[in-house]
Design a protein that fits this description.
5-stranded mixed β-sheet, binds S-adenosyl-L-homocysteine, Transcription Regulator spoIIAA, 30% strand, Archaeosine Trna-guanine Transglycosylase, Chain: A, domain 4, alpha/beta, Rossmann fold, single chain, globular, 11 helices
Length: 397
Amino acid sequence: MKTISVRVNAEAAGAIRAGQPVIPKDSVRDMSVFGAEGTLLRLEDPNGKYVATGYHGQQNKGAGWVLSRNERETIDREFFSRKIREAADRRNPFFENPDTTAFRVFNGEGDGIGGMTIDHYEGHWMVSWYSEGIYSMRQYVYESLKEMPGVLSVHEKKRFDLKGRYMEQDDFVSGKQPEFPLIVKENGMNFAVDLNDGAMTGIFLDQRDVRKAIRDEYAEGRSVLNTFSYTGAFSVAAAIGGASGTVSVDLAKRSLPKTIEQFAVNGIDYEAQDIVVMDVFDYFRYARRKELEFDLVVLDPPSFARSKKRTFSAAKDYANLLEDVLAITAKGGIVVASTNHAGFGMKKFRTFIDKAFQASGRKYRILKEYRLPEDFRTPRNSPESDYLKVAVIKADS
Ligand code: SAH
């Protein structure tokens, strides 16, 4: 592979030496020095001293990722194989647990290669690619996966701007494709997934611990509202945990059949559950008018969303959204407030929570906080990598 030497500014050199995995866009004056996407970079400090080896790949987080801090290490197929093997070894307890068959095997920069992740779904592996640069190295990964025991099939998701390229390909790469939906297990619950159906698979694996907590600790006897419900995975966990009823609200039409399917594969009568295809902001208005109240509300919006009527950004609008939720949360009720916005941390998130409760004139206690689960390994010195923030809040008064 082609390697070019690039001098980065002193600030970036210092941060990378301290362990930061991302190569910042502003580490150079002119990004053309990074060459084409996928070019290997020998990063040097302003004095020309070696800092790290990385690659050029454009994504929202930066201009590329550090792969090694050892000048003598070569980036080749063996490098990729070794990183993937090490990552898989760290997940041995997951591979050996029959109750959870869907989990992350390789978490980008947390496992040493930023810009790609690999998820395991009941023996079927899915690789997600976040830049053209890392995608250009895909053969190294696919060849490595051929050597891994127990890989039944490989699928891929290209999560970068395709600019019209590769559009003809579907997401299947190799092996024996399963029939979809594929039923995976998570802490004994069933979830239907499809690895060959658009951007998402049907379940967000990073919420595993939260689903378990809802089932085991928070749902029993409670009326549950699940907003931004997608395929209703939180509703399924709540129903299994003994909720008195669930309402799942999502704008996407597909959420209706997908949510029915998730209930059905768990043997839950979906007709006894409410599934509403509606903008949540309209639902809040409807619920207030009907004076509905819920004992447990799950709030897990996308970081950014645009509908016909409005745009939503978690960084700007989370407190207002939570205020809307509180207006229909019963006294003593619980709100599971979640965000995957990488642009702010837990501290800031707590200020949004505080603001919403202040504005509602209600008291609260944060019962517990959740971050990414163990298989979503993150590096030290990379706060943006540790994006998931979940607070379980008791609305006392
Ligand atoms: N909480 C879900 C994941 C949410 S993904 C889970 O754990 O599985 C985000 C979802 O928000 C998508 O399904 C999208 O259709 C939905 N969405 C985005 N804007 C919305 C809006 N204004 N009203 C209702 N749903 C919305």
